[in-house]
């Protein structure tokens, strides 16, 4: 049986392994996703400059009651896509943060794709 520490260490190792290959630029930033028990966070990162271009999370106003479920994740995906399109960013590289592409992570990605992001 996996303990919480083992799972978090495994996720961190997966994330570091993936980060060696995924790199965001100003024209095609990295869509980084983090999932906690209460909220889900997404940000577009330019790794060349080391800056966050756009960010969205379920802890912002207007997410009462949907912060930790699939509906909230889909809304965060749509919100980050809208903010990115306002800044003229259409293509991104998806970084699932070591999490399995399932559930809330998958819903966030689908919401971002529906709203117009290309990855």
Automatic annotation (TrEMBL):
<protein>
    <recommendedName>
        <fullName>Large ribosomal subunit protein uL18</fullName>
    </recommendedName>
</protein>
<dbReference type="GO" id="GO:0003735">
    <property type="term" value="F:structural constituent of ribosome"/>
</dbReference>
<dbReference type="InterPro" id="IPR057268">
    <property type="entry name" value="Ribosomal_L18"/>
</dbReference>
<keyword id="KW-0687">Ribonucleoprotein</keyword>
<dbReference type="GO" id="GO:0008097">
    <property type="term" value="F:5S rRNA binding"/>
</dbReference>
<dbReference type="GO" id="GO:0006412">
    <property type="term" value="P:translation"/>
</dbReference>
<keyword id="KW-0694">RNA-binding</keyword>
<comment type="subunit">
    <text>Part of the 50S ribosomal subunit; part of the 5S rRNA/L5/L18/L25 subcomplex. Contacts the 5S and 23S rRNAs.</text>
</comment>
<dbReference type="Pfam" id="PF00861">
    <property type="entry name" value="Ribosomal_L18p"/>
</dbReference>
<dbReference type="InterPro" id="IPR005484">
    <property type="entry name" value="Ribosomal_uL18_bac/plant/anim"/>
</dbReference>
<dbReference type="InterPro" id="IPR004389">
    <property type="entry name" value="Ribosomal_uL18_bac-type"/>
</dbReference>
<keyword id="KW-0689">Ribosomal protein</keyword>
<dbReference type="GO" id="GO:0022625">
    <property type="term" value="C:cytosolic large ribosomal subunit"/>
</dbReference>
<keyword id="KW-0699">rRNA-binding</keyword>
<comment type="similarity">
    <text>Belongs to the universal ribosomal protein uL18 family.</text>
</comment>
<comment type="function">
    <text>This is one of the proteins that bind and probably mediate the attachment of the 5S RNA into the large ribosomal subunit, where it forms part of the central protuberance.</text>
</comment>
